[in-house]
Write a structure and sequence with these properties.
Length: 149
């Protein structure tokens, strides 16, 4: 029962936090007016993609928390903090360059988490692979926005 409650807590924190930030800092008119890089997906895709990724992030964090590995848990918290910072910086402050710095740091922290967990909990590491892929693509989009605007 304690494991189920702790998983529910991780899901509430990550999915709930991500959705709240997404609703508070929506792209809006400023973003709509920007020149977009090639292969920019339609706006409706971001919500389902991030919701799915947040579930995977929460499960990986929960598994890491259960393992008691404090160093890995710090890596997990760093990537989540950077993740939660990106939308307020880009869509709240309209700062694409700072957003690029944040997303690059996020990418490195995701990779560090995967590297840390790979030999200790391959499931947690594998849960981060789609996240790494999506953030790699999002980094391309963010860099494209910086260059084009």
């Amino acid at each position: 029962m304690k494991k189920a409650l702790s998983l529910a807590g991780f899901l509430a924190l990550v999915v709930g936090g991500g959705l709240a930030i997404g609703f508070l800092f929506m792209p809006g008119a400023w973003y709509q007016g920007l020149e977009k890089p090639a292969f920019t997906p339609p706006g409706w895709l971001f919500g389902p993609a991030w919701t799915t990724l947040y579930v995977l992030i929460a499960i990986a964090g929960w598994r890491t928390w259960l393992s008691g590995d404090r160093g890995a848990m710090r890596l997990w918290m760093i990537q989540l903090l950077l993740n939660f910072m990106w939308s307020p910086i880009v869509f709240g402050l309209n700062n694409l360059l700072c957003g690029l710095v944040v997303i690059l740091a996020m990418w490195v922290s995701i990779l560090a988490f995967i590297g840390n967990r790979w030999s200790r909990d391959m499931v947690a590491a594998a849960l981060f692979l789609p996240y790494l892929g999506w953030v790699s693509f999002a980094t391309y989009l963010n860099a494209g926005l910086v260059v084009l605007n």
